[in-house]
Write a structure and sequence with these properties.
By secondary structure, this protein is mainly β. 2% of the residues lie in helices and 47% in strands. It has one domain: TolB, C-terminal domain (Neuraminidase). Strands 3, 4, 23, 24, 25, 26, 27, 28 and 29 form a nine-stranded mixed sheet that branches. A five-stranded antiparallel sheet has the order 1-18-17-16-15, with no helix packed on it. It has a four-stranded antiparallel sheet with strand order 5-6-7-8, with no helix packed on it. The longest helix is centred in the N-terminal third of the chain and has 7 residues. It is globular, with a radius of gyration of 18 Å.
Length: 346
């Protein structure tokens, strides 16, 4: 995989908090949108998502809103994070898709939360704080906040972006690091957080800004998308899921002005790849075939990105977080196969 390097077991995490990177998050999400659809040269089917509701408006304090991390709770609500919400305004929200009521779940003074997923072990909601360099968990009601992991890992502060759980409750996290073009070497990482001890180890380093992360249907490999190079890698784990034994670039995404953001996987193994810079979802088969492009209606102006996806487990109801100068929205489309726990958030 070119400059990428896989790492076995490494040292634990040192304490400390890496702050001051919210501007980098905002910079990532401020690119120009392209209005044209891009099914690509393979002429994949294009389907149009339908708007469900507007969740947020642009914040005066930050000049933007960016919805991410959709995940369904046991109460049936769709939980979301607003990455650029300022201090005191809702940073984690829950949407009742039937009544279209939006409720505040959690906020704080400094966090910039980029993803969310419920643990299969303790039922708590886990949040990646990109700005604070930490992972936080709260109850489904937003109470009892706990810092699960923070600080420096092998000499560098984390910038956790997306996360995925295995069945044992261990977390697999993309550790973002932008690669200034064209001179700098990639510095992103894929991390593992032990569900029992909270110990953080590095599974892969020298990665070109990893963002989305999802398990395949067998649970023995990860699909990791890289924002800076528009590609999706497949990383195969060992039997204990403590190291990567092999990996390769599996899918190249022709994004144009758009970049590969978060992703999800359905029960048939299809990969749903969110895009930043164009409001659409690319869907690929596990063999790399571009099956479908999910687009936003052309008349829905002021939307730049469709960054993340959740498929309600046991159904084909798929929901995307879509954001831009018009605000933050939830859109719905039909998935190609049913959702599983792994399809739900990250």
């Amino acid at each position: 995989m070119g400059a990428s390097r896989y790492v076995g077991r490494t040292g634990g995490i040192a304490l400390g908090l890496g702050l001051g990177v919210l501007a980098a998050v905002a910079g990532c999400a401020s690119g120009d949108a392209a209005s044209e659809s891009a099914a690509g040269p393979d002429a994949a089917e294009v389907v149009t998502a339908e708007r469900v509701l507007q969740v947020t408006s642009v914040h005066e304090a930050t000049g933007m809103t960016l919805l991410e991390g959709p995940t369904f709770g046991e109460d049936g609500r769709l939980y979301l994070v607003d990455v650029t919400a300022p201090a005191g305004e809702p940073k984690v929200l829950a949407v009742d898709l039937d009544s279209q009521e939006v409720g505040t779940v959690f906020t704080d003074s400094a966090g910039a939360y980029t993803s969310a997923q419920f643990s299969p072990v303790d039922g708590r909601l886990y949040l990646t704080d990109y700005a604070g360099g930490r992972i936080v968990s709260v109850t489904p009601d937003g109470d009892d906040p706990r810092t699960v992991a923070e600080g420096r890992v092998k000499g560098r502060a984390m910038h956790p972006d997306d996360l995925a759980f295995d069945e044992a409750g261990n977390m697999f996290v993309t550790d973002s690091a932008y690669t200034p073009y064209p001179s700098a070497e990639p510095a992103g990482r894929v991390l593992r957080v032990d569900g029992g001890t909270g110990r953080v180890t590095v599974l892969a380093d020298d990665q070109p800004n990893p963002n989305g992360i999802s398990f395949d249907v067998g649970g023995d490999a990860l699909w990791v998308s890289h924002l800076d190079v528009n590609r999706i890698d497949r990383l195969v784990l060992d039997q204990d899921a403590t190291a990567i034994v092999s990996g390769h670039t599996a899918i190249h995404v022709d994004g144009g002005v758009a970049q590969t953001d978060s992703n999800a996987v359905d029960a048939a193994g299809n990969v749903y790849q969110g895009m930043h810079g164009r409001p659409e979802i690319r869907v690929y088969g596990p063999d790399g075939t571009h099956l479908t492009t999910v687009s936003i209606p052309k008349e829905d102006d002021g939307l730049q990105s469709a960054t993340n996806i959740a498929i309600r487990p046991g159904t084909t109801d798929a929901y995307a977080t879509v954001s831009g100068p018009a605000g933050g929205f939830v859109y719905r489309f039909d998935a190609l196969a049913e959702g599983t726990r792994q399809s739900n958030g990250g």
